[in-house]
Amino acid sequence: MATIHKTVTGMTCEMCVRHVREALEDLNGVDRAKIDLRKKEAVITYDESKVGVEEMQKAVKDAGYGLE
After folding, report:
1. pLDDT at 26
2. In this predicted structure, what is the pLDDT of residue 18?
3. Burial class of 11 by CB neighbour count within 10 A (0 to 12, 13 to 18, 19+)
4. H/E stretch holding 17
5. CATH topology (fold) of 2-67
6. Residue 33 pairs with which residues in a beta bridge?
7. Mean pLDDT, residues 39-61
8. What's the mean per-residue pLDDT of the chain?
9. Domain boundaries, the chain
10. Long-range contacts of 35-41 (CB under 8 A, 24+ apart)
11. How many whole angstroms separate alpha carbon 42 and alpha carbon 35?
């Protein structure tokens, strides 16, 4: 398992946090996504052999936010 820290853009409330977390955790290979609204940060624990950062960025973008 690997862990990365990424900036999340476009979040304004706890519902946004939920949407981003669910978008990430629905991906096969993402074990856990901890989203911090105040810091605008995602801490993602994932299996590098199953999912990549590009897939995570696409899932978050599809949910209406950005992952940098």
Report:
1. 98
2. 98
3. buried
4. helix 14-25
5. Alpha-Beta Plaits (3.30.70)
6. 44
7. 98
8. 98
9. 2-67
10. 35/8, 35/11, 37/11, 37/13, 40/7, 40/8, 40/9, 40/11, 41/5, 41/6, 41/7, 41/8
11. 5
